[in-house]
Amino acid sequence: MKPFTYERASSPAEAAAAAARNPAARFIAGGTNLLDLMKLEIETPSQLIDVNGLALDTIAATPDGGLRIGALVRNTALAADFRVRRDYALLSRALLAGASGQLRNKATTAGNLLQRTRCPYFYDTDQACNKRRPGSGCAAIGGFTRQLAVIGASEACIATHPSDMAVALRALDARVETVRPDGTARSIPIADLHRLPGETPHLETSLVPGELITAVTLPKPVGGTHVYRKVRDRASYAFALVSVAMIRQEDGTGRVALGGVAPKPWRVEAAEAEMARGARTVAAHLLADAKPTTDNAFKLTLVERTLGAVMAEARG
Q1: Average pLDDT in the chain
Q2: pTM greater than 0.85 (yes/no)
Q3: Which GO MF terms are attached to this record (predicted)?
């Protein structure tokens, strides 16, 4: 691990301004992903800005009937919150499907959204990776691609986004609140937070340098039956091969988002209009532009079958 300086921020605006002054600075809260990356020298920050003292660790009702989740709320606390379990069960179930209990006790809401890909070529510093080192190439293309993206990828990167929580938030139409280095705040639709790789896979979000996530807001509950199903290689502590987040209403309408198949949580609203026609039709719309490899073509069938199982569970 490379040497770094450490400081504690006293306000979100101060933290954002400090990070903007030093492009090699990184925020740290739970550190469950960042510290691993530092040990591997994939991340080599010259400065860590500790944001744990910023009082962003509460969950509160919003005036319009939703919830505002502080950026520092730990995943365990969020999954256990009675309002989340009652009104946003999709989120609670996705959180409990991710990581281990110990990691959930440390991992934060904002950190979960910003965690890096688990593409093995990203973690192997002897391999070319445009996400880790822009312009170096992508060893995953032509390599072993079983875990990697079947849709939304590019000629520069085929990594997937690893978060379970983000998939649920995409289906729930969450928004992400931030503060920028100039002290101004903004609210970003979760659909616009994560970027597709294109030719710049190292740019993973729409955040500007130094911009700090302060909260995630959920709109008022939409009701329905909430189901989150994660298919993985082993029952615990593994990232999704495919995951499905679904909200189904009694009239058969609903929402669906996928994880494990793309560089960001994958939702195609037009596909949701086909829910009454069954899993095969919905999957076909969700993955209409898929370009799988020989190694991961099975994900197309896996999405359809998982969708079918989730639809059956949601119908009861």
Answers
A1: 97
A2: yes
A3: FAD binding; oxidoreductase activity
